[in-house]
Amino acid sequence: MQEFMKHIHPEDRDRIKQVGLQLRRGEKIFMDEEFRINTGDSVKWMRYIAIVRKYSGDNDLQIIGLNQDITHIKKQEERNQKILEALPDFIFIFDTNFFICDLLKSAEIQLLHSLEELVGADGRTIFSEDVSALYIESINQCLRSGKLIEIEYYLDARGSRHYFQARMVPFENNKVLALIHDISDRVKYMQELIDAKQKAETADKLKSAFLANMSHEIRTPLNAIIGFSDLLMTAVEPEEKEEYIQIINANNDLLLKLINDILDLSRIESGSMELKYEEFDLAEYFNEIASSMQQRMNNPNVRLLSVNPYTCCIVKLDKSRFAQILTNYVTNAIKYTSKGFIEMGYGEVDGGIRLYVKDTGIGIADDKKAKVFSRFEKLDEFAQGTGLGLSICKAIADVCGGGVGFESEYGQGSVFWAILPCSVSVTGDKGEKDNKQESVIEDWTEREVLTDVKSMNRKLILVAEDIQSNYLLISASLQKDYDLIRAVNGKEAVEIVRTVPGIDLVLMDMKMPETDGMTATREIRTFNKKLPIIALTAYAFDTDKQAALAAGCNDYLVKPIDKVKLRAVLQKYG
Fold first, then answer.
1. What are the distances in angstroms from CA 296 to CA 362, 414, 439, 441?
2. Which domain holds residue 25?
3. How many structural domains is the chain composed of?
4. Are residues 279 and 427 in the same domain?
């Protein structure tokens, strides 16, 4: 016996020795122990089962035992345990009442419960009511069908949400074994993919809308330039020629602004926007910009005020980029201000110059404020322009190391500002509004009616067009042979068709404020099926043509409008 005990592993020796003594003393009559023995260069696991027999009338005890080599079983258990430890999952065994019978791997980290707390616990005390109901239903379904059941759920722990997947299979004695896997990272990754996909789709839609808008915006001034250039060749009266030249020049400026915006966007996207710093007198340059902006004022109900607080202000800036931000702000204010004033100004701040433009315009709704400086966004889809001006202002300020911002109240007006870091040296008094200017020219927004009574043997055409130069081009081309009525939006066009008798044909611009041309056409078709309606649009895609025809238009002309094609369409439907 002593020789055998020497081969038992030191960690097991005392335990086996103690049990052996208990058997020999008669304190125990049965033994079932596992222990290790040393066999020289290896260790083996043994299982020893023994019973004690005592013969009647004899004090001697007889021990009958059996040794079994269980090394292969222990190695298999060790391998299985390593596999379990390597798995990212933990394993529950539930009974039919949702009690936790056993837990093969601790879920303490994920569920904030220790192994001792979990084993034997009612699952309803561990999981939420909704998750418990899901588990109970799935356990019953698994036991009924005998098949694998998968569920997914979440638990809130430690101030964050964890997502899990449970795969359940029937287990021994009417129980269910659940392999539970933390899928929080997968859910997060999938959500990031969804968000990225949505952002990409949104960006793609914005760019597609931008390209479609570019088609419209570029064709609008081209329509005027080409059309009035054609008319200029046949004009006789000096006043008529002068009017056409002014319209052409105005649209040349608009087209140049559109092209410059697109080029600036390209530079921003490629990261190649460069600044050219130079020293100049900002006070003098500001007055030049203010004078230039004054020429753009075309509403007698709006005054342009310029606040130049210094007689001399030497700065080192990119001169053209300063002007670009300021003129973009003023141009936007002109678009959205129908009465009151627009105030432009600047002043010294710590480390640079702050410029601003204040207006009494329509203001910005709360739901649109987050998109004000976004690319491809237009706060008003009917306002002319690329929708890039404010995003370009922000990009310029960012490159300069400065910033932009605004304050706005819907229906009251807005203040846009930009801060540009630079060296500043000023002289002169501050705080004086040194230039109050007011521009008074003809208000083009009034609806024009060139004739109130239909002339004998002349066709009466309704021209629904909100842009003045476009209408003037059509008027100059047709007024010698046709009587014209103008509507400046779709709502007005519908009302004229409904109330003015004798209209022979409608030239319907597709993009107008209040009610667009497509909507107006559909409404007209509800009470007048026969009136010829010709779509006029700067959108050149085939889908736009099909949409106009589907709305009820009889034909479709793309801007710039060819005078010959226009005449041909009028003859066709006249």
1. 19, 19, 9, 10
2. 2-75
3. 4
4. yes
Shared domain for 473 and 558, answered yes or no, is: yes
Is 364 in the same domain as 485? Answer: no
Q: Which residues contact 419 (CB under 8 A, 6 or more apart)?
A: 349, 352, 353, 354, 397, 402, 403, 404
Distance between CA 433 and CA 424 in Å, rounded? 21
Which 3 state secondary structure label does DSSP give 358? Answer: strand
Q: In what order do the strands lie in the sheet with 149-157?
A: 100-103, 89-94, 175-182, 160-171, 149-157
Which residue, 166, 182, 198, sits at the end of a domain? 182
CB-based contact 510:544 (threshold 8 Å): yes
Three-class SS of residue 527?
coil
The answer on 294 and 418 residing in a single domain is: yes
Q: Per-residue DSSP letters for 287-351?
A: HHHHHHHHTT---TTEEEEEE---SEEEEEEEHHHHHHHHHHHHHHHHHH-SSEEEEEEEEEETT
- pTM attached to this predicted model: 0.44
Choice between 2 and 220, residue whose per-residue pLDDT is larger: 220
215 part of a folded domain: no
- For the ranges 39-53, 163-177, 208-222, 471-485, the maximum mean pLDDT occurs at 163-177
Residues 373 and 487 in one domain: no
